[in-house]
Amino acid sequence: MNEARRSAAGLEVRGLDVYYGHSHALQSVDLTLESGVFSVVGRNGMGKTTLCKAIMGLVGVSGGSIRVRGADITRRPPAQIARLGVGYVPQGRRLWRSLSVDEHLRLAGGMRSGAWTVERIYDTFPRLAERRDHGGGQLSGGEQQMLAISRALLTNPHLLIMDEPTEGLAPVIVAQVEEMLLRLGEDGDMSVLVIEQNIGVATAVSRNVAIMVNGRINRIIDSARLAADRELQQRLLGVGLHAELEPDLDIPPSGPDAKPAPAPRRDGPIRIYVSNPTLPTRWSQPVPIARIEAAARTLSTQIARLDETARRKREPMAAQTAGPPVVLVVGTLDTKGLELRFIRDIIAETGLRTRLVDVSTSGKHSSCDVSAQEIALNHGRGGAAVFGPDRGAAVTAMADAFASWLRRQGNVVGVITAGGSGAASLVAPGMRALPVGVPKLIISSVASGDVGPYVGPADITMMHSVTDVQGLNSISRAVLANGAHALAGMVKARLDARAATAREAGGLPSVGITMFGVTTPAVQKIAAELRDDVECLVFHATGVGGRSMEKLVESGQLAGIIDLTTTEVCDLLMGGVFPATEDRFGAIIRTRIPYVGSVGALDMVNFGAPDTIPERYRGRKFHVHNPQVTLMRTNVEENERVGRWIGERLNQMDGPVRFFLPEGGVSALDARGQPFWDPDADAALFRTLERTVRQTGHRQLIRTPKNINDPDFAAAIVGAFRTLFGRTGTRRRLAR
Quick one: CATH architecture of 3-224? Predict the structure, then answer.
């Protein structure tokens, strides 16, 4: 493509008019998409799909012009427009039921050559690779949408038009589509026009959003402003209250001569209200407020600078949201109503505001502040999934729904529940979704046993109920009252600490560092060098250590990661006793925080006493760390496997990444003259990482000839950290 076309706008629409008979569907539409992703939102029937079809030549144009990278495509046949580099993902997907996934892709793949190939599609959407031989009619809605998007990408378009790409999809698939749109925009290879009803997605993927009203572009507005302003969403889009549109709004118009109003900063979670499950039209009747609240989502924005993180770190995510603080008393009110109300009344007597939340799965209505029916709306399949005959499935579905609902609550300062294993299973997943530091208490008969499955990496407090939580008696009253007072005390102390923190001038931001015994010297040097810049929180890489660190990342309490010791991956893949979960690195991927990492202790798999080592590993090289811990040296094949696994996760990180490869050894045992010194195994690890990771300007692998514990290696880590965070190392530690 010549340079003139490269520099032209991805899409330029001028004075576009479209009629359906005597109905003027599009009225002098002007729209310019320079590059990246651009969202268009509006109520149903406002002309959004007609705009897509007009660009694609699927409806006749009465007036105006359409240009794609400078080429005039107005009134050209659809096939010619497609050959000129315009891809289309229509509303409704439009797949062939009789063709397999692979046949769909092969058919589209021969149209235009470029970066997108069938192999890259399968790498991007592994689910399609698994279903490659299934027909279009055998796929789920999410899989069909993946296929429709993939089919369009395989044409390697200059302009990709997507009409309602998240319509009817489960929340997890919506998140995947949103992530893909963000990546397409950042890659810069194509321009993307997104037509969306989901305001959360539209504002997350695009810097500016166009609002269509009655066939016209009513205004183009900063996405942060639209996302933050619920009233504006209601008035322009009918979201929430479905108010009649007011043409003369108190909002400065867009245009070359207009002075843009300062957009509100995304300093905390933003409540996005959507009228799900009923999409609004001009003729919609009001939707119950409870349903609107239940369908709302919270948009958490990324912290970009350490100074800002230091100011906010003690009150992350939901706890920072304005509103009176509230304690949630949660449980199955159909069986534990008396006990839960007893707890609520005690907490209320301390002066704290409470809300009684029902998570029972019987479908019975109870007197409470938040009903089980309202909670159930937060499940992807609604009440049908929660109130079914299979009790196990119902409990799992309600736990998911409650966790989803709880993440959207902006002023929760404590959560308490009481009951047996069922109540603990229902409420614990939601508690684990809350930031570390928010008091969480479970009073249960299971608290004297193995509580690991309930607590996980979170800071949940469990109290044994002594007697079963069934009725009030002298024992249960004392235990429940102690639990209620304990939670109230934790909440009040935290609120007092919050007030004291707000009076302080500032503080140091926190950064997580992973450590093992064999990487301790490196961590000590790094922490000492950074002590004037950040507060270093060190996590022992024993499986739960990595999960705890990523929990704090999700909570917004860490500004960045120095993941020096990733050894937990070895135990995950080879069956050691300190394994990570499959979601290792997931929090970094989702939050896009700056990440400096390395291959610390990837030379070893951890087992217990020597007689506990699996038979398949007999004859391997071992080192007895102590009588209860035996280390096994990883070999070339295992290191290649680890390298691929980590590399695939690094490819998913969209934040700045610097990943170091110490050629002098990855641990204290992997050094010249030490028992695990094996340059061939290390070389296999490094080679696989370099083959797997797609290096870019923000994602880099860095080789160094030093051992991981060498002072020069620590200095390189510190230098990369300061480059990513903009620190000079001269800031004095603030007085405590």
Answer: 3-Layer(aba) Sandwich (3.40)
